[in-house]
């Protein structure tokens, strides 16, 4: 193992990159790739689904929202369940459910059943994502080894998100059902490989029972928050229904915090948020994914509705960003080792702000190489730096028995950030929608949305910059339930 005070020390043979470690990482990367793939792939197929199953626009929305609702609403529970019941067991069971739900989604002939399959897939992803991330952070020791593993892992997520657009454009030409069925054989292959390769993980034995009230309130509050945000543009942000729902969310979250403070075995140990780097990682995740989802949504509308590009043409326009992320996967870990996560996250957010700002130049006849491509490359570089660094920063300094909890918290920030800011961007664009929808008027209504996206990324940059003010830690800090020695605290502060 590496020395806890010297993560750059040469690892012993037990923790070197062996074929089994590569196999373990490949299984976990496959699951994360599928989670991200499923988020992006369904969007291009929606018109074909609506035509084939005779679904209204509001019903089609729930094919996307159902997945987000299950995913974002149950991540906290999924992360803590992995800690308590065993990461390997939870991961494999959830992956099996994901495969079955994918098969169901490709075979049904009913809108409600398709939405139900999407919800089940989101639910299963809420368990595979934090379990998979915590398997990595407990299998690979903190330092260069883990940083490299996490950079590859998170790159698979970004690549899956980008490839989902391209694959959906190709598969929908044949049938939208192939977009639903594609994840099933991949998930099954990963499941079979995982049975042989994933390390066995013991259940947490020394816990003080299960936090049932916290689990119920935490899950209910996240489900209601995501549901409220998803429905707000349709119901109206100032409607009584939306306002009452937000009040209910606030009440549930307040009750959840009170229970977590008193529970002997909390779903989330609130003390973990005393770490400034942990808080910055969570808010950074919200701003990062929230801004990107809003950008992709508006850009897809711009390219297809205003420029008349096909789904495949649109997907290929995004491809340079995904390709840049993919080719950088094995390099980011070494960069983190040298410069630390705060600098990389700040640099990535700066590139993201610049990429979004440059995209404001678009018009009704843009030159792709001169106008669109620079933004795509900047955003791709930003994703390559920010996403792996956020995962490394959130999981560093956290004890093994709380890795699932922290992983669930980070993934919740990602999903809730995406849901909230997508709804905000949609509301801004809708509010400025012209009465007479000429192409130029529609483009003008999109610009405030792009400005909001840029502002969200700028907020993420400002949050990250607060972590660069001090390069030294206090004599001791509470990171994950225990006091860390001064030397360890200094290392965590300097690197993360």
Automatic annotation (TrEMBL):
This chain's source organism reads Streptomyces roseochromogenus subsp. oscitans DS 12.976
Recorded GO CC terms: plasma membrane
Q: Name one GO biological process term.
A: response to antibiotic
The reply on keyword ATP-binding is no
Protein name (Swiss-Prot/TrEMBL) = MFS transporter
Q: Where in the cell is it found?
A: Cell membrane
Tell me the PROSITE patterns matching this sequence: MFS (PS50850), SUGAR_TRANSPORT_1 (PS00216)
Its record classes its membrane topology as: Multi-pass membrane protein
Q: Does the keyword Membrane apply?
A: yes
**GO MF terms on file?**
transmembrane transporter activity
Gene3D superfamilies in the cross-refs: MFS general substrate transporter like domains, Multidrug resistance protein D
Keywords on record: Antibiotic resistance, Cell membrane, Membrane, Transmembrane, Transmembrane helix, Transport
Q: Which residues are in the Major facilitator superfamily (MFS) profile domain?
A: 24-472
Q: Where are the transmembrane segments?
A: 21-47, 59-78, 90-108, 120-140, 152-172, 178-198, 210-230, 242-259, 279-298, 310-332, 344-362, 368-387, 408-429, 449-468
């Amino acid at each position: 193992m590496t020395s806890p005070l010297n993560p750059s020390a040469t690892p012993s043979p037990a923790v070197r990159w062996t074929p089994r470690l590569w196999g373990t990482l490949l299984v976990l990367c496959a699951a994360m790739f599928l989670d991200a793939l499923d988020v992006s792939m369904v969007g291009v197929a929606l018109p074909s689904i609506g035509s084939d199953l005779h679904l209204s626009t509001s019903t089609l929305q729930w094919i996307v929202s159902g997945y987000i609702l299950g995913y974002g609403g149950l991540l906290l529970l999924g992360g803590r369940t992995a800690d308590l019941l065993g990461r390997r067991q939870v991961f494999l069971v959830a992956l099996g459910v994901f495969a079955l739900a994918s098969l169901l989604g490709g075979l049904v002939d009913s809108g409600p059943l398709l939405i139900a399959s999407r919800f089940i897939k989101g639910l299963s992803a809420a368990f595979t994502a934090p379990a998979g991330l915590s398997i990595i952070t407990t299998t690979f020791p903190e330092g260069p080894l883990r940083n490299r593993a996490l950079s590859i892992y998170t790159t698979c997520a970004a690549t899956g998100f980008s490839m989902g657009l391209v694959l959906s454009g190709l598969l929908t030409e044949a049938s939208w059902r192939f977009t639903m069925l594609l994840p099933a054989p991949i998930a099954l292959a990963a499941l079979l490989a995982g049975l042989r390769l994933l390390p066995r993980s013991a259940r947490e034995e020394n816990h003080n029972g299960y936090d049932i009230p916290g689990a119920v309130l935490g899950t209910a509050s996240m489900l209601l928050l995501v549901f409220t945000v998803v429905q707000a543009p349709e119901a109206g942000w100032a409607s009584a229904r939306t306002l009452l729902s937000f009040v209910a969310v606030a009440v549930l979250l307040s009750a959840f915090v009170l229970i977590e403070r008193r529970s002997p075995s909390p779903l989330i140990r609130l003390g973990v948020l005393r770490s400034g780097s942990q808080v910055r990682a969570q808010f950074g995740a919200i701003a990062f994914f929230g801004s990107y989802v809003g950008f992709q949504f508006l850009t897809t509308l711009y390219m297809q509705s205003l420029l008349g590009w096909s789904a495949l043409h649109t997907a290929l326009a995004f491809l340079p960003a995904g390709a840049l992320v993919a080719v950088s996967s094995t390099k980011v870990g070494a960069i983190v080792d040298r410069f630390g996560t705060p600098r990389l996250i700040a640099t990535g957010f700066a590139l993201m702000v610049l990429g979004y700002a440059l995209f404001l130049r678009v018009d009704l006849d843009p030159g792709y190489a001169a106008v669109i491509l620079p933004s795509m490359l900047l955003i791709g570089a930003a994703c390559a730096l920010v996403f792996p660094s956020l995962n490394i920063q959130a999981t560093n300094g956290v004890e093994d028995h709380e890795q699932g909890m922290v992983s669930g918290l980070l993934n919740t920030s990602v999903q809730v950030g995406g849901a909230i800011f997508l709804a905000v961007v949609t509301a801004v664009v809708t509010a400025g929608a012209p009465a007479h929808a000429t192409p130029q008027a529609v483009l003008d209504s999109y610009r405030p949305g792009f400005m909001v996206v840029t502002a969200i990324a700028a907020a993420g940059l400002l949050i990250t910059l607060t972590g660069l003010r001090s390069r030294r830690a206090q004599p001791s800090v509470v990171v994950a339930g225990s006091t860390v020695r001064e030397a360890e605290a200094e290392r965590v502060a300097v690197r993360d």
